[in-house]
Write a structure and sequence with these properties.
- This protein is of the alpha/beta class.
- It has two domains: 2-198, Spore Coat Polysaccharide Biosynthesis Protein SpsA, Chain A, CATH 3.90.550; 213-265.
- The chain has nine helices and nine strands.
- Strands 1, 2, 3, 4, 5, 6, 7, 8 and 9 form a nine-stranded mixed beta sheet that branches.
- Helix 8 (228-248) runs antiparallel to helix 9.
Length: 267
């Protein structure tokens, strides 16, 4: 039922536990598609040491997390794509909770549970009337709450035909870019139950590293064509980046942002 796509780049210390967290699921109807994105450590040996016929290991030259995930989507045999980064973990109930959500909303195509950070940092959560619910305004709610991360979202494979996959040109915010496209075209079903642990411990993660402006989601944003809540969502992103660049005294990056967005930001 589920194709679990795991991008892998130099995760020899974590990939075994990540894969095991999938194998430990109470729902066992899945395949695991691991895309080795040109790892140079012992990650491959760690995967090959795991004996389970549901694991497929696919190799490609290093192209980044977006290309790795897109390869996994293409290779997936099942209609439901579940993503998991090579240093994150699922709790045993992740796929079971997702299946419960699917049964409650059989017409939906995008499902997301909840997650916690590995360092136990506090997270804001909106009060809800039900444990499983439909997100009515993604951009408004995402201003305060981390509604989706790549390790707890499940997407119907047909969605990628309509909105496209991960943007391979981006190395920062490529996931946020996809969630936004999905939110504009589909209703997102959310569970308040925590089923994933997002690792904050590996600074060399495929998806968590710092990128320059031209490889960030900010470089493809045009505030002119955004509606009110969507515009506020991206403005917050821009302001945070500006503050970070000022703090780091990164004048080159700051100038690039102001040249593209200053007219919109001063309105």
């Amino acid at each position: 039922m589920f194709s679990v796509v795991i991008p892998l780049y130099n995760k020899e210390l974590s990939i075994t536990n990540t894969v095991q967290s999938v194998l430990d699921q109470t729902c066992q109807d899945f395949e695991i598609v691991i895309i080795n994105d040109g790892s140079t450590d012992n990650s491959i040996k760690a995967v090959e040491a795991i004996n389970d016929s549901r694991i497929r290991l696919i190799h490609q030259e290093n192209q980044g997390v977006s290309a790795a995930r897109n390869c996994g989507i293409k290779e997936a045999k099942f209609e439901w794509i579940a993503f998991l980064d090579g240093d994150d973990l699922w709790k045993p109930n992740h796929l079971e909770e997702t299946t419960k959500m699917m049964n409650l909303y059989p017409e939906a195509n995008v499902f997301a549970t909840s997650f916690v950070y590995s360092d136990n940092r506090p997270m804001f959560k909106h009060p809800r009337n039900a444990p499983i619910f439909k997100i009515e305004n993604y951009f408004k709610e995402a201003l305060k709450e981390s509604l989706i991360c790549s390790s707890m979202v499940v997407i119907n494979k047909e969605c990628f035909d309509k909105v496209g996959a991960f943007n391979k040109k981006l190395s920062r915010g490529e996931d946020l870019d996809l969630w936004a496209r999905l939110a504009l075209n589909y209703k997102i079903i959310k569970s308040s139950k925590t089923t994933a642990i997002y690792s904050m411990e590996d600074e060399f993660s495929l998806s968590k590293g710092k990128s320059n402006y031209h490889q960030s989601i900010l470089s493809i944003i045009n505030l002119e064509d955004k509606k009110a809540d969507e515009r506020k969502y991206y403005q917050r992103m821009l302001f945070n980046r500006i503050k970070a660049d000022i703090k780091a005294f990164d004048l080159k990056e700051l100038l690039l942002i102001l040249l593209k967005h200053n007219i919109n930001l001063i309105r």
